[in-house]
Design goal:
- This protein is of the alpha/beta class.
- The chain has 3 domains: about 15-215 and about 230-245, ANL, N-terminal domain (Rossmann fold, 3-Layer(aba) Sandwich), CATH 3.40.50.12780; about 255-390 and about 405-435, 3-Layer(aba) Sandwich (Rossmann fold); about 440-535, GMP Synthetase, Chain A, domain 3.
- It contains 15 helices and 24 strands.
- It has helices spanning about 15-20, 40-60, 75-85, 100-110, 120-130, 160-165, 200-210, 235-245, 255-265, 275-290, 310-320, 350-355, 445-455, 490-500, 525-535, and strands at about 25-30, 35-40, 65-70, 90-95, 115, 135-140, 155, 180-185, 195-200, 220-225, 245-250, 270-275, 300, 320-325, 335, 365-370, 385-390, 415-420, 430-435, 440, 445, 460-470, 475-485, 510-515.
- Helix 2 (about 40-60) crosses helix 3 (about 75-85).
- It binds adenosine monophosphate.
- Adenosine monophosphate binds near residues 327, 359, 417 and 430.
């Protein structure tokens, strides 16, 4: 016997219909790439997305066609996503921080037919476009008055492109499992791998993301996704925001501490989300120049481990709750959030901060386990670490063109490549990427744990720990430090600071000071590049 409920396909454009119908006047505020603050609302965003769909349909773009975007978070980028989705085409976000050859490779792999690009990246696209034969048209996300001089053929302004449509258009109807979006993983080794989201997975994931133990979004919120839409499906904010009916504050290209501070305070943002490096910049700006965050109630921090010092500063100095999050491009991307369950509600001070260094517990729709190398499940005791595996309706079942098949097993588990432990209440803590774990005398040392402690030192701006070959122990930890302006801590200061906080045998064998630590295109510490830079380093006396 089947249920007698309506078969209502979970299509992404129903989200913007909902936002426009029930929260139509809710603001979407952006720092435009041209400069001024721009204000619109969900009703307008939907109407302009319909115009875009209509225009795309006229150009022969339809179900399954890939349309790339290379853009900051602004209202035009948001409209582009919905306009592309509305004809059944696939938004393909490009990360402009990748090397241009890598971007060309990705665009050719995806066979992008069109590209929507911000003014900031026009010069970059001039280098890339000639290498992508599938590209038919380039839409520059601006108006005619701001169109740049460009060698790009077939380039038009977004405003003139959609001006040719009146919006009298019906969204396309199709199966909810149809591809909706594409995002390539950062791919630190080998070719990048394409992750393909479906309409169904995006809608289910947004519903998951809204929950009180997740982002806890409500129509009264003002959400600022600092995390760019091109990083891991924009952490679902393009869907979860409109689904909740909250106002959206889009920071555009202003990613420095001062610009973020201005948007947070002037636009009365209540919830925001980004990687730790962004929050380091904001906190450094506030440490120097002062300021307060009276409207901000919570900040979601993920993409790499959130150092304890960041959590402490937000909570103790500015009264803002930190929600540590873990996820992956392959998971749409949210996997766990560290909200406080009743089992831990009694924790305060340092004990609460200890809990918040964990990446948290999964919502409904994410299943997780940890295993050894033979795929045997390991106990959830808060200390035994193993390979972290996940499955669920918004987790990849394979990569585009079947790459990376070894990461998926026959029971649907996806091997995340992360190493973690899980405690008795289901709180997961990442101890490393499998390839970054330091193997010393047959035991594992967590580089992340040492890094998190080291950035708590008042003179340290950034810290990374890598394993360096050692004649006796195989590998030993090396602590790499970037110091804050005008500070000069000694090696002994730093080692002394760690003393008593980690096991003796985890203590770094040496500390070195550098001007910069290399980062990936999504702002994470790039351990491969750092190891490469330090390949000639050997421990004193080793
Ligand atoms: P990406 O798909 O580029 O977002 O990268 C996903 C990877 O980032 C994960 O597999 C983790 O290795 C890392 N990651 C994401 N969030 C966290 C976090 N909160 N703590 C530690 N690592 C994280």
């Amino acid at each position: 016997m089947l249920g007698l409920m309506q078969d209502w396909p979970l299509l992404c454009h129903k989200v913007i219909d909902h936002a426009a119908t029930y929260h139509g006047q809710r603001e979407v505020v952006s720092r435009s790439v041209e400069g001024p603050i721009h204000r619109t609302n969900y009703a307008e965003v939907r109407l302009r997305a319909l115009k875009l769909s209509q225009r795309l349909a006229r150009d022969g773009i339809g179900i399954g066609d890939r349309v790339a975007t290379m853009a900051w978070n602004t209202w035009r980028h948001l409209e582009s996503w919905y306009g592309i989705l509305g004809v059944g085409a696939v938004y393909h976000t490009l990360n402009p921080r990748l090397f241009h050859d890598q971007i060309a490779w990705i665009m050719n792999d995806a066979e992008d037919r069109m590209l929507f690009v911000d003014l900031t990246f026009v010069k970059l696209v001039e280098l890339i476009a000639p290498k992508v034969p599938s590209l038919e048209r380039i839409v520059i996300l601006t108006d005619d008055a701001h169109m740049p001089e460009t060698s790009l053929v077939n380039a038009v302004s977004y405003e003139s492109y959609i001006a040719e449509a009146d919006g009298d258009f019906a969204w396309a109807e199709f199966d909810e499992r149809t591809a909706a979006g594409m995002c390539y993983t950062s791919g630190t080794t080998g070719d990048p791998k394409g992750v393909v989201y479906s309409h169904r997975s995006n809608v289910l994931h947004a519903m998951t993301a809204l929950q009180p133990d997740m982002l806890s979004l409500a129509s009264r919120d003002r959400l600022m996704p600092v995390v760019p839409l091109f990083h891991a499906n924009g952490w679902s904010t393009a869907f979860s925001g409109p689904m909740s009916g909250c106002a959206m504050v889009m920071p555009g290209a202003g990613m420095d501490g001062e610009s973020i501070y201005q948007m947070l305070t002037q636009e009365k943002v209540t919830i925001t989300a980004a990687v730790p490096t962004v929050w380091l910049m904001l906190l450094q700006r506030m440490e120097k120049e002062g300021g307060a965050l009276p409207d901000l109630s919570r900040v979601v921090i993920g993409g790499s481990a959130c150092p304890r010092a960041i959590t402490k500063a937000f909570q103790d100095d500015y009264g803002v709750d930190v929600v540590h999050a873990w996820g992956m491009t392959e998971m749409s991307p949210l996997g766990t959030l560290c909200s406080i369950k009743p089992e831990y509600a009694h924790l305060e001070g340092d004990e609460k901060l200890d809990l918040q260094t964990k990446q948290g517990h999964p919502p409904f729709t994410v299943e997780m386990k940890i295993t050894d190398d033979e795929n045997v499940s390991l106990p959830w005791d808060g200390s035994t670490f193993g390979r972290l595996k996940v499955r669920g309706p918004a987790v990849s079942s394979s990569y585009y063109k079947g790459r990376g098949a070894e990461q998926f097993d026959t029971e649907g588990w996806f091997d995340t490549g992360d190493v973690a432990h899980v405690d008795q209440f289901g709180y997961m803590q990442i101890t490393d990427r499998a390839k970054d774990v330091i193997k010393s005398g047959g035991e594992w040392i967590s580089s992340i744990e040492i890094e998190n402690l080291a950035v708590g030192h008042p003179d340290v701006a950034e810290a990374a720990v890598i394993g360096v070959t050692h004649p006796k122990w195989d590998e030993r930890p090396l602590l790499v430090i970037v110091v804050k302006e005008d500070r000069s801590p000694s090696k002994e200061d730093l080692i002394g600071f760690l003393d008593g906080k980690i096991a003796k045998w985890w203590m770094p064998d040496d500390v070195i000071f550098v001007d910069d630590i290399p980062h990936t295109a999504t702002g994470k510490i790039q351990k491969t590049a750092l190891r490469d830079q330090l390949k000639d380093y050997s421990f004193p006396g080793a």
